[in-house]
Amino acid sequence: MKTRYLRHTLFLVCAIGGLSGASPAFSEDNIERSCNAHYAVRVSYTETVAGHRVSNLVMLTMSNYGFSARRGCGRTVPDRCRKRALEAIKQCMVAHANSPATMPAACTSNGVNNYRITNLEKAVQETVCSHVSAPQHRFNLPDIYRVSLTGYSSGEDCYSDSLSGQDDLGSFKVVSCPPR
User: Fold this and answer.
1) Domain residue spans in the chain?
2) What tens digit of pLDDT does each residue of 99-115 get?
């Protein structure tokens, strides 16, 4: 009688544990993967060098503002985790490019980590102006620059059809630097 009682009790404990999701095997079957991201700025301008007008295109990486996204999924589908992380990155970047003066909620939720840009427009201006005010730019540079913004993702298998490693966020704005 005692053996039969123990068998039924053990069966009930296993059945209830398995249905409730409290089983340790459930949490062991979930994993997380992350992807990294940063912005890059393409700056086009015309300068006068030795009496000649020269057009320039410079790519500046905003590496001080790198961030990441981390998302979870089942152990057998790690690429699904990365795809979710990439989607969170893209939503953040597109939302902030569309409304550059304020940090969107998409950049503080959905697995996005370490996003430090409050005002994207100001961050782009600081990046461009610090580059053109560097000592090696002693030419007669303009005060206004055409700027376009690109988002990049990186990490193990952190590329998808939607990002392809980069996502052109379109022409951002004309940046005006303070006088040097």
Assistant:
1) 2-176
2) 999 999 999 999 999 99
